[in-house]
């Protein structure tokens, strides 16, 4: 506790007595379930269209889409200056609505201005960018559309953060759902009906961002006013800039392997690997994404209101999250093969091979919500940046060593090792900044058990066995994991009772948590 910042210590010492830990857990679950529902609808819509896309697009098309999207993401991280994360932290630093509104309005104007300036440069040099990222023979229109998608996507960015900070999860999910329906409808029109290919995907993204993002921005400015406060801008940049290194490091950890695959192999291999990653990334989208959407705000609220009583509350919630995360990772590792072979076109049938390793990588990545919480509460963004940068360097080295020989499997292995390294180091330093009391054993015991179950399930499928036989064995293995969690005590009797009760009466889950 000695290493916490003075402002955090002051908040802890003067924190008012807050609700019991069950109320915090119930609130976190409630908002998390709302975000989860929104993400499920988004993933479901994506899965419905996946067979269509993989039959209308080639693996090379998918590779082009991946490279351009990731390049835009790099620019987004650098241009964003860490402001998105800074808004959340500074919003809870101020007590008056006037200051909070000034933070949000200033952040939005700053982000839109920077993104617009970069977009102008991207359009001016689109021919050169096309030659470097793709090939001189590819159409320049792809890069120009990617640049427009980049700038219009920024319009609704800070309004979305504003809703998260206010813990207005229902409104944010509704906005995202409307954007999804509009984008999906336009994709069907442009890609399926008009056969515009990946240009149609970019165009649908642009139009949906213009409509929904524009509405969200107008709605936010009506509430906050259109104000640019230089002092707030300096605070936002001062807090957010160290996080740029962390964000860029995260990008390297996640996506640098695509560029290595592009250099050492082909765009078609990039496309197949990107699809493998998309399946594993569902763990982040469906489990960690909803949790992350509410967790930073909730963790800061708990730390401020509960003072010295906050760590056990935080620990209990994070360990429940970890167990859910590992269970999802095992499910993806066991059943992705069945889904891929059933749904996808012939160019993408090999996408299942890397999914188990990538699922482990995603579990380790999503555990950032655990390892970084202490550093976020203690206002130590530089600490997160240093550790993430270190792990990114390891990822680059591993990519260079493994990808030339093993292609997609080498990329998956490099990703898993790098995320594991990041988690181990980050948890150690974060616990020193603000001690929550989470040990490596707490986190890794379910992961080791899940890995053992996956190995048993893989070895138990006889050579040449049919898909029905393999599926039956995998279902049995998943059930075995649940029994093993109970037998080893990882899943406590109280948690078991809560699960059974929630399955019998889903509405009872929030009430049960509030009474905890």
Count of distinct strands:
0
What's the order of the H and E elements? HHHHHHHHHHHHHHHHHHHHH
Q: Please give the radius of gyration in angstroms.
A: 23 Å
General form: globular
Which structural class matches the secondary elements? mainly alpha
Helicity range: over 70%
Strand content: under 5%
Q: Which regions are unreliable across 5 or more consecutive residues at pLDDT < 50?
A: 1-19, 512-516
The average pLDDT is 81
Distance between the termini: 27 Å
Helix count equals 21
How can the largest sheet be summarized? none
In short:
By secondary structure, the protein is mostly helical.
Search tags:
single chain, 516 residues, mainly alpha, 21 helices, disordered N terminus, disordered C terminus
Helix-strand layout with pairing:
Blueprint: H1 6-13, H2 21-56, H3 59-80, H4 83-91, H5 97-124, H6 126-133, H7 141-153, H8 157-165, H9 169-193, H10 198-224, H11 230-264, H12 267-306, H13 310-343, H14 355-366, H15 368-371, H16 373-377, H17 381-433, H18 440-460, H19 467-488, H20 493-504, H21 508-514
Walkthrough of the structure:
The chain is built from 21 helices and no strands. The protein has helices at 6-13, 21-56, 59-80, 83-91, 97-124, 126-133, 141-153, 157-165, 169-193, 198-224, 230-264, 267-306, 310-343, 355-366, 368-371, 373-377, 381-433, 440-460, 467-488, 493-504, 508-514. The longest helix has 53 residues, at 381-433. Mean pLDDT is 81; it is low at 1-19 and 512-516.
């Amino acid at each position: 506790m000695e290493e916490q910042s003075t402002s955090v210590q002051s908040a802890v010492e003067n924190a008012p007595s807050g609700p019991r830990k069950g109320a915090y857990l119930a609130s976190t679950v409630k908002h998390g379930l709302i975000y989860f529902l929104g993400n499920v609808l988004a993933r479901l819509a994506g899965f419905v269209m996946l067979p269509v896309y993989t039959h209308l697009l080639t693996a090379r098309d998918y590779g082009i889409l991946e490279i351009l999207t990731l390049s835009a993401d790099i620019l987004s991280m650098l241009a964003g200056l860490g402001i998105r994360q800074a808004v959340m932290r500074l919003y809870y630093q101020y007590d008056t609505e006037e200051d909070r509104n000034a933070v949000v309005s200033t952040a939005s104007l700053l982000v839109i201005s920077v993104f617009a300036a970069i977009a102008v440069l991207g359009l001016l040099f689109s021919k050169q960018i096309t030659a470097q990222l793709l090939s001189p023979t590819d159409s320049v229109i792809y890069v120009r559309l990617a640049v427009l998608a980049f700038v219009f996507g920024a319009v609704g960015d800070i309004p979305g953060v504003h809703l998260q900070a206010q813990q207005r999860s229902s409104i944010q999910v509704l906005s995202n759902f409307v954007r999804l329906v509009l984008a999906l409808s336009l994709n069907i029109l442009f890609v399926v009906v008009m056969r515009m290919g990946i240009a149609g995907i970019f165009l649908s993204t642009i139009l949906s961002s213009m409509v929904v993002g524009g509405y969200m921005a107008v709605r936010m400015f009506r509430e906050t006013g259109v104000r640019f406060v230089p002092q707030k801008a300096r605070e936002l940049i001062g807090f957010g800039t160290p996080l740029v290194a962390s964000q860029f490091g995260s990008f390297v950890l996640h996506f640098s392997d695509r560029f290595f695959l592009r250099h050492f192999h082909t765009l078609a291999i990039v496309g197949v690997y990107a699809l493998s990653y998309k399946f594993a990334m569902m763990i982040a989208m469906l489990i960690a994404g909803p949790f992350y959407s509410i967790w930073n705000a909730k963790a800061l609220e708990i730390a401020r209101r509960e003072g010295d009583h906050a760590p056990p509350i935080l620990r209990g919630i994070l360990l429940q999250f970890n167990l859910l995360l590992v269970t999802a990772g095992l499910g993806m590792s066991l059943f992705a093969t069945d889904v891929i072979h059933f749904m996808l076109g012939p160019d993408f049938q090999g996408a299942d091979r890397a999914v188990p390793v990538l699922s482990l990588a995603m579990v380790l990545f999503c555990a950032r919500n655990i390892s970084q919480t202490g550093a976020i509460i203690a206002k130590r963004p530089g600490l997160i940046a240093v550790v993430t940068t270190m792990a990114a360097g390891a990822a680059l080295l591993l990519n260079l060593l493994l990808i030339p020989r093993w292609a997609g499997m080498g990329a998956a292995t490099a990703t898993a090792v790098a995320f594991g390294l990041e988690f181990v180091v980050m948890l150690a330093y974060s616990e020193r900044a603000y001690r929550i009391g989470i040990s490596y054993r707490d986190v890794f015991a379910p992961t080791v058990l899940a890995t053992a179950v996956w190995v048993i399930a893989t070895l138990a499928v006889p050579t040449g066995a049919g898909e029905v036989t393999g599926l039956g064995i995998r279902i049995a293995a998943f059930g075995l994991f649940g029994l093993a969690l109970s037998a080893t005590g990882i899943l406590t009797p109280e948690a078991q009772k809560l699960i059974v009760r929630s399955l019998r009466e889903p509405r009872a889950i929030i009430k049960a948590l509030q009474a905890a």
